[in-house]
Amino acid sequence: MNFLRRAIKNVIRVPSKSILLGITFFVIGNLVIVGLGLTSASQNAKILTRKQMRAVVSYEVDFDRYYADGDSIESEEERNEFYENYPKIDLEQNAKMIADERVKAVDAFYDRITYAPDLEYIKNPYSNSEGIAYTIDADGNQVEYQMPSFKIQANIFPMQIALYEGTYEIVEGRYYTQEDLDNENRVCLITDELADLNNLRIGDTIKLCDYSQTDLDSFAKAGLDVSNMDLELEIIGIYHNNKELDPNDTNTQYMQAYDVPANTILMPSTAYNRYNYDASIVSNTYYNQIYGTGIIENPDYESFTRVNSAVYLLDDPLHVDEFIKDYEGELGDYQILNANNDEFNRMARPLDSISMFANLILLIVGVAAVIIITLIVALTLKTRTYEMGVLLSMGVSKIKVIMQLFVELLIVAILGFSLSIVSGSLIAGKVGDVVLDYQVETENEYASDDSNVIYYGGVERYFTEVTQEQILSQYNVTISPLIIAEIYILGLGVVFISIVIPAMMIMRFNPKQILLNTN
Amino acid sequence: MSSILRLENINYGYEDGGYRRQILKDLSYDFDSGKFYTILGPSGSGKTTLLSIIAGLDKPDSGEIYYEGENINKMGLYKYRRNKIGIVFQSYNLVNYLTGLENIELAMTETDNKIPKNHKEVAYALLAKFGIGKSKADRLVTRLSGGEQQRIAIARAIASNVDLIFADEPTGNLDSATEEEIIKIFRMLTEEFGKTVIVVTHSNEVSKLSDHRVLLHEGVLKEIE
Ligand SMILES: Nc1ncnc2c1ncn2[C@@H]1O[C@H](COP(=O)(O)OP(=O)(O)OP(=O)(O)O)[C@@H](O)[C@H]1O
Ligand SMILES: [Mg+2]
């Protein structure tokens, strides 16, 4: 008749106490399951939605805040000074984050439109404009202006998001490497369509120019050397651009040739920067001649390597928050790492409210459980002083007496919790639906409708747009084995804490008392 | 005659409203093995206090107790209670959610003494010896009469294979007919089982049957006659 068997006998033969405790555990179990179920469903819904989103973080200047701060400056002088120190992203910081192993691809490119007089371009099949505009030359005459037909994408990283995600597919050859970037190699990739049209192969050279023939003529007339104004690039790769013009988009018919995806030429940013710098010196000299020396200062090379923002594609959408947390502290003024979290968080707000509500339930239930069970055990212990005395007078150690009490509680707790898993799962599902409906309703009532996100034309949309319906549709209360394990662990915790006071009562019990209080 | 329990200069007192009351004063006594002792004395003289001290339920302010020459404090009071003695109370004090048999088994499991492996049979036999048949042995103890419960309590006291049995007014709650039966059992414990029995009692009937009648008076034990 060891303490385990005694505990079992006690549970069976003192049914009133066992049932009372059992019901308590059962009720607690149900509440805990509802709480845990709601919380985990909220978390799951967020995780599932996140997984569907692109793992994109953009390093950019927080212009909203910059302008807001600027506008709030009272003195005009100070305000102007504030606006002169335009915030920029930090290239060293950028380089550091690029080196992070979670970063799989980076889009930080110089997106420039350019001429290539020797090349045929792919025409926009939906457009009827000729690509000719008019401009005023230095002498004040209206001259015909030829629009550039090509677009250069010069990236600072040997992998760009479109290529990583398969929008660009290498057909032949290769993408440029870090070595190409480091050595400012004048290499490029052109599309298969462009290669076919111009009969170009890997190893051939193409000639691009950022300046129109009209400009070049003006420079030459002014006696400037225009021999370095051409950007000669060796073709190292031919890729297919899966992006196509959308005929249903009303903007498509106004699009110029350079907007045609097949006319995009990829090259390392460093080579482009060098070219751009050299060419700009010629052009600046020309304009200084015309408008008077010193009007345009020759900028330093540094300013040509500047990017305004960088977009990182990470290996896993679930790493986004962690990535931001890791680097957020290192950023300078007005620099932010944006993962479109505000939008996501705003839409996930009903879920967060549910989580909070559920955690509150858990906390209250936990505390109430400990108090109620402590009270029940302490009260039943009062009626068991005889038994304590008998056991102690027989030399049974107090530890064993406490263990027996613990096992008694544990048996009842396991029974109560096990039963509650069955009913709790059903309740949690129902409560989940009701609470979600309620939350969405109240949230929408109080939330100002700022869901209209404005996208600027031409800006690549990196962030996956998710709707609230999408997130909420992922909300599904299921009681996983993990939750069941959590319930038992929590129950064990409650039993442990609840036994503390009764255990102290037992430890203080003096066995002599059994002799003194007869009856 | 060998001594089973030896008390040396036991003192016990307590503070009561700034006034110190000494219950046991330099009490020394030898209990011989295999004898039936009764301790008598007026109410409030300290009999229960003495019993709780010699049964290892309480500690004296000073003085030593030796069980077969071994200091029970050194032995450890829990061990002493578990392996050397059995206690019978006035109010029986059985574990009330267990049957009579299970109460006996409880004593058998908790002791470190050598007990025959077949607990159940031994327990049934022991109870039968004290007039508790199988059907009553299997009943919850709360469904038995006071006399029956006390028999079980006595059986439990010796079930752990100990040589020294204490009892505090074991017949206090029983009618005279039942009292007589219980006294016979105590006699049987000494005569048949060779146990040493120390019983605190108010009853003349009980003390008449004992080998030694000891009076607790003014804090010391004195044998009568
Ligand atoms: N620790 C203590 N604190 C206060 N009073 C105590 C303490 N221990 C014993 N007493 C008191 O000492 C006296 C002796 O008590 P005890 O129970 O030993 O007497 P008793 O001889 O058994 O009496 P009875 O025959 O009525 O059972 C009582 O008045 C009791 O209340
Ligand atoms: Mg007494």
Radius of gyration over C-alpha positions of chain B, nearest whole angstrom: 17 Å
Low-pLDDT segments of chain B:
none
Largest beta sheet of chain A, briefly? 4 strands, antiparallel
Query: Helix tally of chain A?
Result: 19
As a percent range, the share of helical residues of chain A equals 40-55%
Number of helices of chain B: 9
Total of domains of chain A = 2
Helix content of chain B: 25-40%
Give the helix/strand layout.
The complex is a heterodimer of chains A (519) and B (225).
Chain A: H1 3-13, H2 15-52, E1 56-61, H3 63-71, H4 76-84, H5 91-98, E2 103-107, E3 109-114, E4 132-136, E5 142-146, E6 150-155, H6 161-165, E7 168-173, H7 178-182, E8 187-191, H8 192-198, E9 205-208, H9 213-221, E10 231-241, E11 264-268, H10 269-291, E12 310-314, H11 320-328, E13 335-338, H12 341-347, H13 349-382, H14 385-393, H15 398-446, H16 468-473, H17 481-498, H18 500-508, H19 513-516
Parallel strand pairs in A: 6-11, 8-10
Antiparallel strand pairs in A: 1-12, 1-13, 2-12, 3-6, 4-5, 7-10, 9-10
Chain B: E1 3-16, E2 19-32, E3 36-40, H1 47-54, E4 62-67, E5 70-71, H2 72-75, H3 77-83, E6 85-88, H4 100-110, H5 119-129, H6 134-137, H7 146-159, E7 164-168, H8 176-191, E8 196-200, H9 204-208, E9 212-217, E10 220-223
Parallel strand pairs in B: 3-8, 3-9, 6-7, 7-8
Antiparallel strand pairs in B: 1-2, 1-4, 4-5, 9-10
Helix pairs in contact in B: 4-5, 4-7, 7-8
